[in-house]
Design goal:
The structure holds two protein chains of two kinds. Chain A has helices at residues 3-32, 49-70, 89-99, 115-128, 158-172, 192-195, 198-208, 225-234, 246-257, 274-277, 300-309, 314-319, 325-348, 355-363, 369-374, 418-435, and strands at 36-42, 78-84, 132-133, 151-152, 183-189, 211-217, 238-242, 265-267, 288-291, 366-367, 384-385, 397-402, 407-414. Helices cover 47% and strands 14% of the residues of chain A. Classes of the chains: A alpha/beta, B mainly alpha.
Chain lengths: 443, 322
């Protein structure tokens, strides 16, 4: 063997042996610096991208902020990975399967960003022991933590939202009893998401005596003239909209086209963002929508995002849709999830939390006004307390109105008739438990 | 006996709801019925605008252009993107039309030319590829956000005889009708039009008599691009320019089945029938089964036509000698 061959053989052996030698060192390093992994099921493309982009931006930017400003959560660095679904349930399930095995100690929590995906992964998540947080969407019955220990709907649900809407228009009419004989039309996306509030509306119609007409619009909602012709004929006092994507923009234009008074046209919290009203121009002025976060970019958290995430470039932050309704919703989603991790760390120590530990954190989350102040978001979102039994967290809702240039809150935190809604949730959860042979936890 | 009576009463009730009450409703509220029909006609013209693009390419190449919806999106995105950069509407329109010609040239050069004389299904698959490319490329260049589009078409609502109509819908109908008339004349009385029909009949025979196949394809795809631009303006003004524009192609399919894949007047008549049919069905029969029937009703209507006229109302009769 000549020198050249000997050298090549030695180098080859060294290359082959390197991983064996280095592996224990690397693994111990990784263990020491395990990161908190946030899987992000998002949609930046497809028919609903207009809503998906700001949601993903807000969530991602807040995670980046914590890394840049605080070095993560209690010193544990955050890592995240996006998986694109195009708002397709099938692809969403694939994303879940792809991401559930990632992260040093597994994924933190899944935010499916779709009611369809939520329904599909709830049964899987309880097997995989990963919490699912469908913030203000998904299966409303999951608000009962005794039956759904791995699913969370806080800060509110579609049923609570429908009750808040009835409360709100009741107040406008001088009391809920004055709703008797009033007509309410409900225009909804013909999907699981759109149909979710129907039980509440029907139940409250019996209680308060209003007339109720539900009108479905098929995906994607580009054409809905038939529904609005029926609205014109029905002459409702109020119209409630549960749309998403292009359906919202078209609905607002169609409402204007039949001269329906905009301040009597109220959308749900997925039908009340800037992309929904801007294409309609001036005709959208006065349109109202539910919300559970303040609009605008006036909080300390926003200022910190501009400073730490965008390097002080306000124009770039604006391009990233900072301050828009759905961007802000992405932020509060991230605040809930990261604070749940912090809560879990309070019990299990400052290290990367597993899905099971985060579930405990979610279930014991208590965001007080004082804590929201410390986070720089006081007044931006409501205080909330989640428990083993109550995964909805009380479910209060606000209403905002479009002025032509910005959203303004016109009705603060509105009661959601939990005396009516909570028994409905528990009844639906009990039915689910019976159907799926689940023994509810004692809480 | 009671059970039999109950069942009979229920059957009568259902038959009454299907065959009597909707017609009573139409006659007792004729103004509303007229409004439904007019609304359907105006919507139908919007469907026809999309269907026209399909017809043009099918006539020229026998290919069902799956990418027509993506072309609508791409054309509208280009127009609104230019307008947002401060380009005047008229210039943005010209540039967007020019971009659609470039798209046609590229498609001819990179996709169609290498596939001459391949089975139709291969060309169809190629158009699926074009769809993915145009959607992705459009979003890459212009972003996935919603864009407000206003090219100055009036949008006020007015009342005639108790019917509420929208100026924009009237304009859309007028523009659609004008386009159909122009295209019908263009393809019937111009040299290119005749050449196009020859190419549609037989690629090789057309080539053998000196018809420049490449040029014809570029012309046809360009015209389909212009039609897509107009459709994109009309639909984009209503909903904002966004990805879902590419899905309106689904609305054109029943129109094509009904009107025939090779007939320009068929596209407009098919659009009108589908537009009126789905609105009337949704409003008068939809509530019986929970509503939201207009999408599938359009396809059901088209399928019913297929049973009796497989070539559609105005399509060329398929005669194959064996």
């Amino acid at each position: 063997m000549n020198l050249k061959k000997t050298l090549i053989a030695a180098m080859g052996a060294a290359v082959l042996a390197a991983p064996l030698v280095a592996a224990p060192v690397l693994s111990s390093t990784a263990e020491a610096a395990a990161e908190q992994f946030f899987p992000m099921i998002i949609y930046r493309t497809g028919a609903y991208a207009v809503g998906g982009i700001p949601l993903a931006n807000g969530y991602g930017d807040y995670l980046k902020l914590l890394n840049a400003r605080d070095g993560g959560i209690n010193g544990v660095k955050i890592k995240f990975e996006e998986c694109e679904t195009q708002y397709s349930t099938k692809v969403g399930v694939e994303c879940y399967e792809k991401l559930k095995g990632k992260g040093d100690v597994g994924p933190t929590v899944f935010n499916p960003n779709s009611t369809g995906i939520t329904y599909a992964i709830i049964p899987k998540a309880s097997v995989d022991k990963v919490p699912v947080h469908s913030m203000g969407y998904g299966r409303t019955a999951a608000g009962d933590g005794r039956v759904f220990p791995w699913a969370f709907t806080f800060p509110t649900s579609y049923w609570s939202q429908a009750a808040a809407f009835i409360n709100y228009i009741g107040e406008r009419e001088g009391g809920k009893n004055n709703l008797k004989g009033k007509k309410i039309a409900f225009i909804y996306h013909n999907s699981g998401y759109g149909k979710e509030p129907l039980p509440t509306f029907n139940k409250l119609a019996k209680k308060y005596g209003y007339d109720f007409k539900a009108l479905a619009v098929d995906h994607p909602g580009q054409e809905q003239k038939a529904a609005w012709l029926q609205v014109r004929r029905y002459k409702p006092d109020y119209v409630f909209l549960t749309g998403w994507g292009v359906m919202n923009q078209v609905a607002i234009k169609e409402a204007a086209a039949i001269r329906f008074p905009m301040d009597h046209f109220i959308g749900n919290w997925w039908s009340g963002a800037e992309p929904d009203v801007l294409p309609a121009g001036k005709t959208a002025i006065g349109y109202i929508a539910a919300t559970f976060n303040q609009p605008g970019a006036g909080t300390q958290a926003h200022a910190d995002i501009v400073k730490h995430v965008y390097g002080g470039d306000a124009a770039a932050a604006k391009k990233g849709q900072i301050g828009q309704v759905l961007y802000n919703r992405g932020i509060i989603n991230a605040i809930y999830d990261t604070e749940a991790v912090r809560t879990a760390m309070g019990k299990y120590g400052n290290k990367a939390m597993s899905g099971e530990q985060v579930r405990w954190g979610l279930e014991n989350l208590n965001l007080t006004e004082a804590r929201l102040g410390e986070l720089g978001v006081k007044g931006f979102m409501g205080p909330i307390s989640v428990s083993c039994k109550d995964h909805e967290g009380g479910g209060k809702v606000m209403f905002q109105q479009w002025s032509g240039t910005e959203w303004k809150i016109v009705k603060g935190w509105t009661d959601t008739m939990q005396d009516v809604i909570r028994p409905m949730i528990e009844e639906a959860a009990a039915a689910y438990a019976k159907e799926n042979k689940i023994t509810p936890r004692a809480c | 006996m009671f059970r039999q009576n109950g069942s009979f009463a229920k059957t009568m009730e259902v038959l009454n709801a299907i065959f009597v009450l909707p017609f009573v409703d139409m006659f007792t509220e004729p103004v509303f019925f007229a409004e439904v029909v007019v609304g359907g006609l105006l919507t139908g013209v919007m469907y026809s605008l999309v269907a026209l693009g399909f017809v043009l390419i099918f006539k020229a190449s026998g290919v069902f252009n799956f990418a027509q919806g993506a072309m609508v999106l791409f054309a509208a995105l280009t127009l609104v993107g230019l307008m947002e950069k401060g380009v005047p509407v008229w210039l943005a329109l010209i540039i967007a039309a020019g971009v659609m010609v470039i798209v046609a040239v590229v498609i001819e050069k990179l996709v169609l030319r290498p596939l001459v004389n391949q089975p139709d299904i291969i060309l169809f698959m190629a158009t699926i590829g074009i769809t993915f490319f145009l959607e992705g490329f459009g979003e890459t260049v212009w972003g996935s956000d919603i864009h407000r589009l206003d090219v100055g078409i009036p949008d006020a609502t007015f009342e005639i005889g108790g019917m509420l109509l929208n100026e924009f819908d009237i304009w859309a109908a007028a523009i659609g009708a004008a386009m159909v008339a122009f295209l019908a004349l263009f393809f019937r009385y111009t040299v290119i039009g005749r050449a196009l029909r020859a190419v549609a009949d037989d690629h090789q025979a057309a080539l053998s008599v000196g018809i420049p196949l490449k040029t014809i394809w570029i012309v046809v795809w360009s015209v389909a691009g212009f039609v897509g631009l107009v459709a994109g303006i009309m639909w984009g003004t209503k909903s904002g320019v966004q990805f879902s524009l590419s899905l309106i192609a689904l609305k054109a399919l029943p129109v094509l089945i009904l009107g025939g894949f090779t007939s320009i007047p068929g596209a407009i008549v098919g659009g009108l029938i589908i537009g009126v049919g789905e609105k009337v069905a949704e409003i008068y029969w939809g509530p019986l089964i929970g509503g939201a029937i207009e999408n599938w009703f359009a396809y059901m209507l088209a399928l019913a036509f297929l049973l009796f006229r497989p070539q559609g109302l105005f399509g060329e009769k398929i005669i194959e000698r064996v």
